[in-house]
Amino acid sequence: MNSLPKCPACGSEFTYEDDMMYVCPECAHEWPKDGTAEDSSDVRIVKDANGNVLQDGDTVTVIKDLKVKGSSSVVKVGTRVKIIRLVDGDHDIDCRIEGIGAMKLKSEFVKKA
């Protein structure tokens, strides 16, 4: 039975000890063992389709053809999207795609480039 605490950032139960820190292998979050908890209630982890953590300014690649609502345009597989911005909501990536313009994407349809 694992007596180590769950990760406060993503809730993973697969944490491990490293010197004076606990480490989460899923989101790479580290926190001290001595019980001083940091306030991570406002930290939001956004992961791509492969489970990689996304950050503002990353470049991602679309992994599925996506229809553009209200238009006959389609964002094709393999389209690279540069300089993403993470936002709250159902569509958690705000970006600009060449030839289409400003869009919101779901992180489950992209992978980190």
From TrEMBL:
Q: Which segments constitute the Protein YjdM C-terminal domain?
A: 46-113
List the Gene Ontology MF annotations in alphabetical order: hydrolase activity
Gene3D superfamilies from the UniProt entry: 2.20.25.10, SH3 Domains
Keyword hit for Hydrolase: yes
Q: Signal peptide position in this chain?
A: none
Q: Name one Pfam family in it.
A: YjdM
Stored InterPro entries: YjdM, YjdM_C, YjdM_N
Record keywords, A-Z:
Hydrolase
Per the database record, which ranges form the Protein YjdM N-terminal domain? 3-32
List the SUPFAM superfamilies: Prokaryotic SH3-related domain (SSF82057), Zinc beta-ribbon (SSF57783)
Q: Which family does it belong to?
A: Belongs to the YjdM family.
Q: Which NCBIfam families match?
A: phnA (TIGR00686)
Quote the PANTHER family the UniProt record gives: PROTEIN YJDM (PTHR30305:SF3), PROTEIN YJDM-RELATED (PTHR30305)
Write down what this protein is called. Phosphonoacetate hydrolase
Query: Which species is listed as the source?
Result: Methylobacter tundripaludum
Q: Lineage of the native species? A: Bacteria, Pseudomonadati, Pseudomonadota, Gammaproteobacteria, Methylococcales
